[in-house]
Design brief:
about 250 residues; alpha+beta; two-stranded antiparallel ribbon; 6 helices; 11 strands
Length: about 250
Amino acid sequence: MRAPPEDLAQELEALGIPLGSYDFQPLDAVRRTIARRMTDSFRDVPHFPLQAKIEVDALLALRSRINTAGEDRISLNDMLIRAAALALKAFPTANASYTPRGLIFHRHADIAVAVAIEGGLVTPIVRQAETKSLADISREMKDLAARGKAKQLMPQEYFGGTFSISNLGMFGISSFGSILNPPQGCILSVGQPEKQYRFRGDEPYVATVLEATLTCDHRVVDGATGARWLLAFRKIIEAPEAITDPSPVS
């Protein structure tokens, strides 16, 4: 922390923030890049959110069985990456990017995952996630996240994803929406699963529910396309046997 430049100190003084009442930290390259990209995205991309409540009891039970039986420790995020990739292959029109000259439909689900680092975040990519097993995804994400936090990723490991996932559940956040990461057409935001009362007909029951928000670029993904993708994702999560199938999805 240090004193701000003189002209900035004067600007703050004019706003009623006197010198000596705060600490100043200059923006580093990471924070400047994040600020520029997110400002451009929020200003220039016509985006809209779609929200769904998804029961995850079957998914959590499956994860428990996998982790009890095997050596690899599978996280909820690993399962969400695999499920998102399968849903993108089922509805490839959601796996798309906008350009002024035409739409780009990606052949593979390259899933970027937001990882918090000192001074900002980085989005390492699990490439062709639809072709990888849960164990493969788990090992790859552990490596990418560790090197991301150490700022050791190569540019090709965090540039060029086709779809993003941001999970703030570990911070106790139940629901939120994210700013798009251009040129990706969608980003999925997931919160902390929580116990909720639900009804099956007139009969109440308790379920563990995850709130998911899909933010879409309306130039490439319209409401119906986004809704179909979110429905496919929910069906995979609520009946998760397909997540464990290591067979590549064409």
